[in-house]
Each structure stands twice: as structure tokens, then as C-alpha cells.
From TrEMBL:
InterPro entries: Nuclease_put_TT1808 (IPR012296), Restrct_endonuc-II-like (IPR011335), Uma2 (IPR008538). The keyword Hydrolase applies. This is Uma2 family endonuclease. It comes from Candidatus Synechococcus calcipolaris G9. Keywords: Endonuclease, Hydrolase, Nuclease. The keyword Protease does not apply.
Length: 185
């Protein structure tokens, strides 16, 4: 992520972002252009969203979103996670921004891996609604689930090839291989 090196207000960011064909994230006054996704990155996110969609069925009180809807915490940050779930009715009033996710998923890339597993996770922890944060490798069958067990305590479970992944907060279990279906070498 490369920052535009001057402060911008959250209001100016939102005004610019709404009409911009290139997505940007916002963190404490700095704006970052989003890295381009690979075909495997997109396929993993699509496979996960399909698993969630099939699991929820219709009707559901929960909603899931791809990387085109922002998550926000106060004026601290606006991020585009690769996938997330919210079941909070307050998130139905704004079509562009959600504030009460219970599950956030990031598909890791070389350029975002350190930020996604470090500072971004620290930011996301401010969301009291967040119960699970999931990191998915696109280079190998590897998933890390961070689950909130107390207000400031997170437990980590790592899944590898052959394992079944469990997303406790939405009661979904699936073979890790399902995330990697249809990937090109």
C-alpha cells in the first residue's frame, strides 16, 4: 500500500472515493491505493463467498459482502476487506459503509500480508462487533482464524491442507480444499 503523503479529512476521502474508479483505503488521515488482485486471490474470495451464501440460504438476518463495500470505525479507518459478514440491522442503512461486522476475511498477498496480519488487525480489534478475523493464503492451503474469546483476548487456530475450517461465529464448517477450487497453478 502506498500512501498519498498529505492529510485528508474523512469527509474529503469519502467524497473523492465515491466517484473514483480505483479503490482506496483510509487510515488516520492518509489514503492508500489498493493493490491489484490476482486471479487466484479473486477465486479464493469468490469460493468463500459462495460457501457463505450456500450456508445462509434465504432468508437470513445476516449479510455478506465482497471487497467492494467498506468497513469503518469512527473516523479512524475505512477498509475494503476481501469478505465480511454483518448481522447487525444498523448496517442496512448505508449501502457503501458497514460498521458492525462479526466476521472479516482477508486473502493475503505479498504486498499486504504484513499489514493485514499486523496493523490492520490491530485496527479491526476496535470493532467490538468483530468476533472472527480470518487470513487466507493464496500461495498454499493455509488459513488462520483469530477468534475473540474476551474483550482483549484472541485465540488463533491455523488450518492446513486436508483440514476442515470452522467459522464459529456463523456456524460454518468446510474442507479447506473448497477455498482453493479452480485455482490456476
Amino acid at each position: 500500500m502506498i500512501a498519498i503523503p498529505h492529510y485528508i479529512s474523512p469527509q474529503d476521502y469519502l467524497a473523492i472515493e465515491r466517484n473514483n474508479p480505483i479503490r482506496h483505503e483510509y487510515r488516520r488521515g492518509l489514503v492508500y491505493a489498493m493493490a491489484y488482485d490476482t486471479d487466484n486471490h479473486n477465486r479464493i474470495a469468490l469460493n468463500l463467498l459462495k460457501l457463505i451464501d450456500d450456508h445462509f440460504g434465504d432468508p437470513s438476518t445476516c449479510r455478506f459482502y465482497s471487497g467492494n463495500v467498506k468497513i469503518n470505525y469512527q473516523d479512524e479507518f475505512y477498509y475494503y476487506p476481501d469478505a465480511f459478514v454483518t448481522c447487525d440491522p444498523r448496517d442496512r442503512h448505508d449501502r457503501y459503509i458497514k460498521r458492525y461486522p462479526k466476521l472479516i476475511v482477508e486473502v493475503l498477498s505479498t504486498s499486504t500480508q504484513v499489514f493485514d496480519s499486523g496493523e490492520k488487525f490491530t485496527d479491526y480489534q476496535q470493532l467490538t462487533s468483530l468476533e472472527e478475523y480470518v487470513l487466507i493464503s493464496q500461495d498454499r492451503q493455509w488459513v488462520e482464524c483469530r477468534r475473540r474469546s474476551a474483550p482483549d483476548t484472541w485465540e488463533i487456530t491455523v488450518y492446513n491442507m486436508g483440514d476442515r475450517v470452522t467459522l464459529h461465529n456463523i456456524d460454518l464448517e468446510f474442507a479447506i480444499s473448497e477455498l482453493y477450487r479452480g485455482l490456476d497453478g
